[in-house]
């Protein structure tokens, strides 16, 4: 089996490649850092299975998905558990949708085998969408001010997770998590983590007139 790993985060790619090389059925692994790179590699050497992230520069996973899915089984493997993202990915031809955090070598091997045989691979979040349809979600208006990666880190921080816990969950380094938070502060008009979490939870910027709990 030839597998293509597509993710802009090199730490995530290293982790996935390490797992894949321990799976007997995997004969070769290639890496791409964005959708454009993935399509180029797929045209040269059609992979059996593509592990595809969503939020990437130049061309994101949802944009690259239709072409990649034309000749390969594509499994979305990403941090986003938003039901609208899941629905869009499945509509565009993904054979499955998994969220980082609970994927070990046994789960990954099973997912690859199922996708290769034409089956669907659905994590709990994706199964919920398939059964009940995407939720009508209330979107935090502050998400438009930050990147998707920064939003994912802020979501985790708002759940009370430490930088180290966020790093483990999202396949990042603690330093990278801190960098994402620091990059988000000026965009949210705040100066530290506590202020960022407060405004993020309330979906409102400082000084806008909305009372925030203390």
Name the shape in a single word: globular
Number of helices: 10
Return residue spans where pLDDT drops below 50 for at least 5 consecutive residues. Answer: 208-214
Q: Name the average pLDDT.
A: 86
Q: What is the count of β-strands?
A: 6
In the CATH hierarchy, what is the class of the largest domain? Alpha Beta
Quaternary structure annotation: single chain
CATH superfamily of the largest domain: Response regulator
CATH architecture of the largest domain, by name, is 3-Layer(aba) Sandwich
What percent strand? Answer: 5-15%
How far is the N terminus from the C terminus? 54 Å
Write the layout of secondary structure elements.
Blueprint (H helix, E strand, L loop, with lengths): L1 E5 L3 H11 L7 E5 L2 H10 L4 E4 L8 H9 L3 E6 L4 H9 L4 E4 L5 H12 L4 E2 L1 H9 L15 H11 L4 H7 L4 H15 L4 H10 L12
Parallel strand pairs: 1-2, 1-3, 3-4, 4-5, 5-6
Q: Can you walk through the features of this model?
A:
The chain is of the alpha/beta class. The protein has 10 helices and 6 strands; from the N terminus they run βαβαβαβαβαβααααα. It has helices at 10-20, 35-44, 61-69, 83-91, 105-116, 124-132, 148-158, 163-169, 174-188, 193-202; strands spanning 2-6, 28-32, 49-52, 73-78, 96-99, 121-122. Strands 2-1-3-4-5-6 form a 6-stranded parallel beta sheet, with helices on both faces. Helix 3 links the parallel strand 3 (49-52) and strand 4 (73-78). It is globular and about 50 Å long.
